[in-house]
Amino acid sequence: MIRLYFLVPDFKNTQNIVNELQDYGLDEHHIHIVGKDHERLEKAHLHEAGLAETTDLIPALKRGLLFGGTTGFLAGIVAITFPPAGLVFGGGAVLGLSAAGAGFGAWMSSMIGVSVNDLGVEHFQKQIDQGKYLLLVDVERDLFKPVEELVRSHHPEADIEWVDLKGTSIHYANSMN
């Protein structure tokens, strides 16, 4: 999945880009907008970006599940191998500790992730505060270039950057050549 960031100077062009992307076949749930004027976005029925898009919530949640589950699994193996005095553990201990570790890891890391801004949104925050709009568009890899070219051809005023979302790591690159 690729996330495209389109920094657009005004509301009219933002609406036009959203309409063009929807006409192209993108679902509105893959198009999110960050802007100062929340009421205007709501009145126009545009999908405003939420915490999942503007913070590190989802990547942090994935990391917490992975590391917490792994830690719980290892704790379960240790409990089976070296049981406390008089206790006998079976496979359920491994499963239970893995699930508990994954849940605890996801909970703790999501609490931290929700307080950390998405780097792409943070990169454009000054322009957003000045009244510009930032579109976050999530597309499959095979649609990345066509969508970028569609917007670039009709809206040269939009600044375009993209992020390659690979598992829990994020790689930023400017798409302008």
Can you tell me the residue ranges where pLDDT is under 50 for at least 5 consecutive residues?
Answer: 167-172
Give the overall form: elongated
CATH architecture of the largest domain: 2-Layer Sandwich
Percent helix range = 40-55%
Taken as a percent bin, the fraction of beta residues is: 15-25%
Tally of DSSP β-strands? 5
Cα Rg: 21 Å
Q: Which topology of the largest domain does CATH recognise?
A: Alpha-Beta Plaits
DSSP helix count?
8
Mean pLDDT: 86
How would you characterize this protein structure?
It is a single chain. By secondary structure, this protein is of the alpha+beta class. The protein has helices at 11-24, 38-43, 51-54, 57-81, 91-113, 119-123, 125-129, 141-154; strands at 2-8, 31-34, 133-139, 159-166, 169-173. Strand 4 (159-166) and strand 5 form a beta hairpin. The radius of gyration is 21 Å and the shape is elongated. The two termini are 21 Å apart.
